[in-house]
Design brief:
Blueprint (H helix, E strand, L loop, with lengths): L21 E9 L8 E8 L5 E4 L3 E10 L2 E12 L2 E10 L4 E5 L1
Antiparallel strand pairs: 1-2, 1-7, 2-3, 4-5, 5-6, 6-7
Length: 104
Amino acid sequence: MSIFGIGTNTQETDNGEIKGQMFHIACMAWFPAYSKDPIPVSFKFMGEDGSCQSVKDISIIEDEEKNYSGIPSREYKCKAFIGGLEQIFKLVYFTEEYKWVMVI
C-alpha cells in the first residue's frame, strides 16, 4: 500500500473571478457566537439610476467558502424582493477585507 501523495496538496481551490454584475453594498449582518461566518440580515446599495435601494427579509438558499483570485470569501446564494420583484442573487463577503458585494 502506497501513501505517496497523501497530504501533498495544500493549496486551496481558486474559483477564478466573480461573474455577473457586481454592486458594492452596505450590509447589516449577524455574527453568531457559534460560528465565525456572518449571516446577512439586510443591505443597501446604489441602483443603476443612482437611487438608494434597501433590501430586507433575505432568505439564504445556500452558502459556501470560496476563493476568488486568491482572496478568501464566503458566498451566499439568496432570495429577496428587490424593486418589488423576487430576485435570486449572491452576496459575497470578503473575509480579510470585511467587504460585501451583491452579484446579479
